[in-house]
Amino acid sequence: FEPSALGTRQHWDAAYERELQTFQDIGDAGEIWFGEESMVRIIRWLERHEVPLDSSVLDIGTGNGVLLVELAKSGYMNLTGIDYSPSAIQLSEKVREKEGMSNIKLKVEDFLSPSAELSGFDICIDKGTFDAVSLNPDNAAGKRQQYVSSLRRVLKPGGFFLITSCNWTKEELLNEFREGFEILEELPTPKFCFGGRIGNSVTALVFQRK
């Protein structure tokens, strides 16, 4: 991928500062990455596989925290969201307060160098964070390796990793996460047709930690 400002912390700090101001002004939590259907897809998978409601869940790059709120509304109790942007965590705290979801834990954390207490999760969820890491202008390939290493460290053996991406195909993601993970399922995503060929603009996969 071409390096992009979308892969820098400065971009996301500025974006979430704007969204935080908007939330304070009019109560709008801002954009939901990949739309509401992406959250429904994740929650349906968890419910279909009868993932216990007390399972520990980590939202990697939580942004405005809306996914965690929806998980809490679905009955999940052990929820943590991290983001390297302090403005994103401020925004997600405001959203959490508005929704009355005091049990959601939120922390400023860089997933590429996670703190020691960030470990032992049953479920890790990523909607677009790995995409952003892949666009970093400073050694994106090395940062992708750091990401996979961090994921191995924070996710329990046997735990599930649900990733939604608009930059990577299924085959590419299988290659990126081949060290320590095996594919369980590809989740259905909207299809598009162009030039007589049908494809997906979004890839959603479930991996299991070996």
Which descriptors would you attach to this protein?
Rossmann fold, 210 residues, seven-stranded mixed beta sheet, alpha/beta, single chain
Quick structural summary:
By secondary structure, this protein is α/β, with parallel strands linked by helices. The chain has 7 helices and 9 strands. It has a single domain (5-209), classed as 3-Layer(aba) Sandwich (Rossmann fold).
Question: Overview of this structure, please?
Answer:
One of its GO terms (biological process) is methylation. GO terms for molecular function: protein-lysine N-methyltransferase activity. It catalyses: L-lysyl-[protein] + 3 S-adenosyl-L-methionine = N(6),N(6),N(6)-trimethyl-L-lysyl-[protein] + 3 S-adenosyl-L-homocysteine + 3 H(+). This protein has one domain: 3-Layer(aba) Sandwich (Rossmann fold), CATH 3.40.50.150. The protein starts with 8 loop residues before the first helix and ends with a strand. Helices cover 39% and strands 26% of the residues. Helix 1 runs parallel beside helix 4. It is globular. It is an alpha/beta fold and 210 residues long. The strands form two sheets. Strands 3-2-1-4-5-9-6 form a seven-stranded mixed β-sheet, with helices on both faces. Strands 7-8 form a two-stranded antiparallel ribbon. It is built from seven helices and nine strands, in the order ααβαβαββααβαββββ. 37% of the residues are buried.
